Amino acid sequence: MKTGIAKEYWAEFQKRNPKYKPVPLPIRNYFCDNEKDANDCAELVQKGIKRATTHAVSSLHIHNENLPAVGDIAIITDWYGNPQAIIKTIRLLFDMLSKHRRSRPEARPKMSRTSPDELSKRFFP
Region labeled Disordered — which residues (predicted)? Predict the structure, then answer.
């Protein structure tokens, strides 16, 4: 990931949001495992459409990463590591994936690109 660019992006965010001045540079991540979906998801975050995510707990364990926690902050990047948005975890819900598959798609906004449900089905076949 492009740490130098992320540092500048974070510093600019801190200037506009002084309460985050003492917070060190957050982790940098992109969504999904391919360029198109990573870039599409970053765009959806920027537009305020993508406002939730999920983690594969087994993947977190394999990569020795912590479970998400309320208050976590991350810089979302495109596939190439360019910062696109800053997110903060404000709420956690732990549930089985099968329940999410049964969620009401009509309650979600219509999207012209890949929908979060489509991405989830590709990532969690």
Answer: 100-125
- Quote the CA–CA distance of 82 and 30 in Å, as a whole number: 9
CA atoms in the 13 A half-sphere facing the CB of 83: 21
Q: Which domains does the chain have, with CATH numbers?
A: 3-93+105-118 (3.10.400.10)
**Cβ–Cβ under 8 Å, residues 26 and 7:** no
Q: Are 113 and 38 within 8 A, CB to CB? A: no
Q: Rounded to an integer, what distance in angstroms lies between the CA atom of residue 91 and that of residue 77?
A: 21
Q: Please state the length of the chain.
A: 125
* DSSP strand pairing (83-88 vs 73-77): antiparallel
What global pTM score does this model have? Answer: 0.73
